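Supplementary Methods, section 5.1.

A reviewer requested that the exact input to the structure prediction be made available. We therefore reproduce it here, unchanged from the version used in the analyses.
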Amino acid sequence: MRYACYRLGDTDDAKDALQDTCHKLCDKLTDEKSDEVKNLRSYIFRTLSNVCLSRLSQSGRLKTIPLDSRLDMADIQYESNEEDIKRIVKLLGEIPEEQAEVIRLRIYGDNSFAQVAEILSVPLPTVKSRFLYGLEKIRKAMKQTKN
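The structure derived from this sequence is encoded token-by-token as follows.
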């Protein structure tokens, strides 16, 4: 739920995405022709990631934000968790998607780097470098909005 919430920026959308993911998992497990799920955790996160991406693209919320049009997010005081989620989603939207997805899966999905590598089907060193570069870009963006 936490991963979907940070991915979509809305708790209701996150609940819907989780429900869609559960339906897909049930379909996969009951389909006699489908291959066996080798790693259930990886399958669930990969499916949830795809469901979230699909929902974002269908709703038109999957957009890039020009750096010069950013709000001064570091100086804004937020009153609720929903606002915090939206701020983080916005910051993650400003970095390359590959890096943002690694950060989401690692931090909000509570996956190890090895699990993230398996979920995304990329080498472990690639996952670690994407994580590092993504965090550096977020830190830099936060410092720029402070000035």
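The longest helix spans residues 124-146. These observations are discussed further in the main text.
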